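# step 3/5: fold
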Amino acid sequence: MSDRYDQLVEGFQKGLIDMKDLLEGLPDDVDPHDVGYEAARAALAPVAWARAVGDRMQTAEATDLLGVTRQALQKRVQKHTLIGLPGKQTTHFPVWQFDRSRRQVRPAAERVLQIFRASGEFDPYMIAAWMVAPCEELGQAAPAGLLEDEGRVEEVFKLARAVAKRWAQ
């Protein structure tokens, strides 16, 4: 395996040694193997989510791009007009939402979020992951890749309505 794997295992083992008193306190009905497996999943969950939701920018970059304050950005997240995924001491914003050349949120991205918001089903992680996943209904294109394609953006909206309806059931 890779050097990174070895480093991860070494760090995990050191952590277990440093917390040996907690390990000895595990109840008898708890399987240590299961605990270790879940610990590995939890440790790598942020990496899995990063893969699932695509490229992201942090709060500072998003405020700079849009020329707004952190508070204004957070207000948009709270109103579900922008997806912000909580991170350690920052919020991650999937980049497909932004038109960098115009320094604004893509109107088509706002429309997709409006569709999900109207359905009553607004899970930012699920929406972000759906937007970057290849969709059979779109010829294996990801919805995010079609937001600026005037000939196909209506397909994205139609599919978003169907997906939002399915998720809301």
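# step 4/5: annotate
Strands lie at 56-58, 85-87, 90-94, 98-99, 104-105.
# step 5/5: archive (pending)
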